[in-house]
Amino acid sequence: MNDGTVELTKDHDRHIATITIRRPAAGNLMTRAMATAFAAHLADADEDDDVKAVLIRGEGDDLCAGWDPADAWEQYTDAPGGAVRKHPSQRARLIALDDAWWGRNGLYQRLLHCRKVTIVEARGRCWDTGLYLVLCADLVVAAGDATFGSPRWHNVGVDGDMSLLFATVGLKRAKELMYCNVAWSAPTALDHGLVDRVADDAAQGATELAAMCASIMRDGIVTEKYAVFASLEKLGVGLSFAATTVVGASLSNIHFQPGEFNFLREVRHEGAEAALARSRADLEIR
Amino acid sequence: MKYGTPESIAAAAGQVLYEVDETAGIAYLTLNRPEKHNAMSVPMRDRIIDLMAEAGDDARVRVIVIRGNGKSFCSGNEINEQWGQKRPHERRRTLTVGYRYGADMAWGRLGFSQAISRSPKVTVAQLHGYCAAAAYFMIACKADVVTAAEDTRIGALEARFLGPAGAVASVHINRILGMKAARRTGFTAMPMSGTEAHHLGLVDTVVPAADLAAATGEIASAIATRPPGHLLYLKSRLRAAEGVMDTSVPSITGLLVSHFLQSGPDEMDFWKTAKAVGVGGALDADKKRKGAADPRTGVTA
Amino acid sequence: MTAVDLRTADGRAYIEVPSFAPLTAHDPDFAGRLAAAVVEASDDDHVKAIVLRATGPDFAPATPTGFPSVAGTPTTWHRAFAASTAVYQATCFAKKVVVAEVRGACHGAGSALLLCADLAVASEDAAFGSPFLDVPESNFVLAALTIRLNRAKSWLLRGQTYTAADALRIGLVNRVVPTGRLRAETERMTAAVRGMPLDGVTMSKMLQQAVYDAHGVGREFDLADHYAIHRAAVGSGLAEERA
């Protein structure tokens, strides 16, 4: 099912670029290749002076239902030092997570450091990778059916960003997502400050918000984004992302106790799709 | 050295009123330029700095209430004076002047907003009408306790033609509103109502406009009845903790914003337009542009 | 001597005391035994979640602070309340997920402890007083990160008491339920934690500690001695207030 693409279109008249995740049959599960294409599109929008705002959306029912676990192991073995022994080295795991996801050229940092205003149209599942897209973008318009969470954390531990999550929704609410196997409905996410608006027509709502942002002068947008990059350092986000990479690499080879659901073995034996479905069966939407 | 014209310097004393209620232990700093929504001239800001120092030194004062006469709390800095045209006393604006009244005023260590955020006394901001631009990020977001009328219009309403000017980047504002709302106010220039600002956590107490003065007075009086030594202890705790959280703003931001931003050929040159048809006319012209949100439209209270 | 009871069952550790008020009274012996219980539960491989529970009607009723002199602050007081091994940091940086179960009044150190817990369940009759007026070791950064900066400032300066509904609205607690359902809700919430892999819980808490430090939580804990000495020096004005 490794057939996803990420596409970029641009409307220079309205100064809005649109990045669309296209893998609807699989809930837009994100692979490393898709993340790399996504980051390249962000770089393209950054370079284009006639783009002021970047809209991010998914084709089909979901923004993005997560990170494709089928792809996860391969990215480690492909990284430098990844295929020397039977199991990928720790350096390979670190390098893979850094390059494609958390490092300075990875998807999340590229999104966080985009020079233009970034707006997510959040529909359906916004889980794992989908949640990080929501956190790293500037603004979020949610459809009524959108849900936000990281069920992956329940199965292996919290291997994603905490700093943006803490600064966006507060400590105790963040920990409900981290430790309680909970995803938030759109109204809950709105109440907790994770999204800006809930709209019947999320596409229209996101487009309206993007138009509002695109009415701001270019110099104003880009200078403010650079100021934001400075303030992200003061908020501890850089340190947090670096720590996340280390913890993510470590969590990729944890041991499970007798009786614990072994997500990684389940992926190897039953395939990614079945493992994901089973691991998410008890997720509670609040 | 005081900047400003002889007229604007002379007017400042009547434009920022100051009185101390000795019995209650409360100082009132009242913006009094209602015909301009209490827009702050450079001499007015200088006077606020002086008055904050005076209240800080005054042993009778435990709480400082900052409020506005007329329809609005404050619409921000006086833009015609500072930005729109060259002032009579300077042939061209130098960085010395601009830094002091632009970047440093807003975010720097020596500026106007520090006079409020670093006061040893408890500060209370009482918002109604407009609380826009500098009044939003230099007063409302720097005060200790904020009260507001439900239909107050709060935000970086100038962002569309001046840029967000640090309203998104301020770590302080991110910690007050959460990261998304900080971005929303800066990148869309939409106002938030007093009710919304209460939901987000900027505003401590929100009431109908008619009840605002009484509600603020009650809060200020209750705080002022605490023992002065205890209040000074609590305030110094706050300053230390905010230092630990590093809530200050990368002050270099304001420098770019206040001096060097240019509008593109397809973007409205706000200053040129304002010079030709006045600030109100420029706002009208701006409203007609694609996607723009008019800051003067009503908010949902 | 106030009892501190620790028992474990089904992947949870329950730390039960009559109330947490002795922390507000600055009873160093109670604080020491509470910290030891948290560390023991945290080290136990059979435990993924730690529940802090008062068996009495109130989590932490208001009580005089019993605060020491300026001279006494850096010694016994420091060891029991401000040191990295003391109860607040032991709780805040525990290797397992800590859940506060709050019923009735939660004042002074009760609220300081609540801020150190990861999650909180409260009964409808719970009331949350400010920890900042008379508990100098309480962590303001945790409050600002939990309920946002201005709400934390207002809690510190106005010293108001939040109702359970307010606490839920501002994110100070995760769930509010009728008193009769309090324990069941704690079980439900900790059952989710129990479903995580043990190593995953510990690793998450390690990452959490790093992110806390990036946000200033540890640095604020380190300032507790300064706050306490300042407060002792001005007598916090509380005697003056009573007069």
Automatic annotation (TrEMBL), chain A:
Q: Name one GO molecular function term.
A: catalytic activity
Entries under InterPro entries matching the protein: ClpP/crotonase-like_dom_sf, Enoyl-CoA_hydra/iso
Mention any Pfam family matching this sequence: ECH_1
Which family does the entry's similarity section mention?
Answer: Belongs to the enoyl-CoA hydratase/isomerase family.
The entry's protein name is: Enoyl-CoA hydratase/carnithine racemase
Which species is this record about? Actinacidiphila alni
From TrEMBL, chain B:
Record keywords: Isomerase
Question: Transmembrane segments in this chain: where?
Answer: none
Q: Which InterPro entries match?
A: ClpP/crotonase-like_dom_sf, Enoyl-CoA_hydra/iso
Is Isomerase found in the keyword set? yes
GO MF entries = isomerase activity
UniProt-listed Pfam families: ECH_1
Record flagged with keyword Amino-acid biosynthesis: no
The text of the family note is: Belongs to the enoyl-CoA hydratase/isomerase family.
Any idea what this protein is called? Enoyl-CoA hydratase/2-(1,2-epoxy-1,2-dihydrophenyl)acetyl-CoA isomerase
TrEMBL record, chain C:
Q: Cross-referenced PROSITE patterns, in alphabetical order? A: ENOYL_COA_HYDRATASE
Q: Which GO terms describe its molecular function?
A: isomerase activity
What Pfam families does UniProt report for this protein, alphabetically? Answer: ECH_1 (PF00378)
- Highest taxon, organism lineage: Bacteria
For this UniProt record, give its keywords in alphabetical order, as a comma-separated list: Isomerase
> TM spans, by residue?
none
UniProt keyword Isomerase present: yes
InterPro entries, per the entry:
ClpP/crotonase-like_dom_sf, Enoyl-CoA_hyd/isom_CS, Enoyl-CoA_hydra/iso
What protein family is recorded? Belongs to the enoyl-CoA hydratase/isomerase family.
Query: PANTHER family under this entry?
Result: ENOYL-COA HYDRATASE (PTHR43802), IP11341P-RELATED (PTHR43802:SF1)
Protein name, per record: Methylglutaconyl-CoA hydratase/2-(1,2-epoxy-1,2-dihydrophenyl)acetyl-CoA isomerase
Q: Which organism is it from?
A: Actinacidiphila alni
